[in-house]
Amino acid sequence: MQSLDSVDLKILKMLIEDGRVTLNKIGNEVGLSNSGVRRRIKNLEEEGILEGYTAVVDPEKIGYDIAAFLNIDVKSSEAGRVAGALKQSKGVCEVHKTTGNHGLIAKIRAEDRGSISEFVENRVSTYQGVKDVNITMTIETYKENLLDI
User: Fold this and answer.
1) Could you tell me if 40 and 68 lie in one domain?
2) Fewest Cβ atoms closer than 10 Å to its Cβ: which of 71, 76, 99, 130?
3) CATH number at residue 72
4) pLDDT, tens digit, for every residue of 116-140?
């Protein structure tokens, strides 16, 4: 993997803040031509640092008002399979293998508390290898970003 210099970091920061920022605006900020910026972005993409471009949607404004974290106690031999199933599930925002007592933690978004309970009871708890699921529901979200550098 390439070492990121201050120009790469500034380009990444600008793209994180606005994925539709123009090459011209980036170039003016970092002191490069449009082709220089394009080359830097292409290198970041080829290195897998920039994985894609997406719209950032406010989940609450489209009805996904509740966020919850699922601490999933899973047999270690089944963690990858359970994580794969979670990754394919609607409303699952993040899935992480963790240290400690649980094995997996997942962040989910849903329309209401009942939807989260139903998802856990009828789906997650039925996955082979899942021993227990503890739900932590959020009350209010103060910050929710993919990455802020």
Assistant:
1) no
2) 99
3) 3.30.70.920
4) 999 999 999 999 999 999 999 999 8
